[in-house]
Design a protein that fits this description.
Keywords: Signal. By secondary structure, the protein is mainly alpha-helical. The protein contains ten helices and no strands. The chain is globular.
Length: 212
């Protein structure tokens, strides 16, 4: 009887341990609360992209959202911000036309409330023009990363799959497009065909010889 009680207690303890472990795993996972399902889904994917492809991620935020690289490195490395938090802070700043640091400081005043609360305090509400500007900015980012999306259309982007985001894998976003231009320049080598004019000169000489 005593052994059964000990066995039951052991099973209960194991069960509680597993439950607490699952709860901890959920707590550690990235938590997105913007008030918009589509934006929340994109931020989860952006977070994954930033962890997989650090350099092109920083290049995108610095090059297209105007954030200083030193600030991005500080947030990611020293303050251990999630990539999606870094992106959204700078996206909000870009939509409002203010420095990303201003949004970071606003977030620091009330950490843990979620980005929806931060955006509302700064004048961006779901459905507003500024909020739609945020979404359009996200669409542009995905295009530069080689995976176009449509606003409010359900989609799941897996950056681990080959072909997803390859365009953005350079220090500067959109490098692959720029490199494509070099291929066009190769077409200018077609000017070599003008060397064929030498042949015409040869014909001319031949004609002169005949004439003589």
């Amino acid at each position: 009887m005593i052994r059964k009680q000990h066995l039951g207690a052991l099973v209960l303890a194991l069960g509680l341990g597993l439950a607490s472990g699952a709860a901890m795993a959920q707590t550690i996972g990235y938590n997105v609360r913007t008030g918009d399902v589509w934006v929340d889904a994109r931020l989860g994917e952006i977070n994954d992209y930033g962890r997989r492809y650090r350099d092109p991620f920083i290049g995108e935020i610095s090059g297209h959202y105007g954030a200083p690289r030193s600030l991005l490195v500080e947030l990611l490395d020293r303050r251990h911000w999630a990539p999606a938090d870094v992106y959204y802070a700078c996206a909000i700043a870009h939509a409002l036309g203010i420095p990303c640091l201003d949004v970071v400081r606003e977030y620091d005043r009330n950490p843990g409330q979620g980005w929806g609360a931060v955006a509302k305090r700064m004048g961006i509400k779901p459905g507003s023009d500024a909020f739609h500007a945020l979404k359009r900015g996200t669409v542009g980012t995905y295009e530069r990363w080689g995976h176009p999306v449509v606003i409010d259309r359900a989609v799941r982007v897996d950056w681990s799959r080959p072909g997803n985001g390859n365009r953005g894998h350079g220090d500067r976003p959109g490098n692959s497009r720029g490199n494509g231009g070099n291929d066009d320049n190769r077409g200018n080598n077609g000017n070599r065909g003008n060397k064929g004019n030498r042949g015409d000169k040869g014909k001319g000489r031949g004609n002169n010889a005949r004439g003589n």
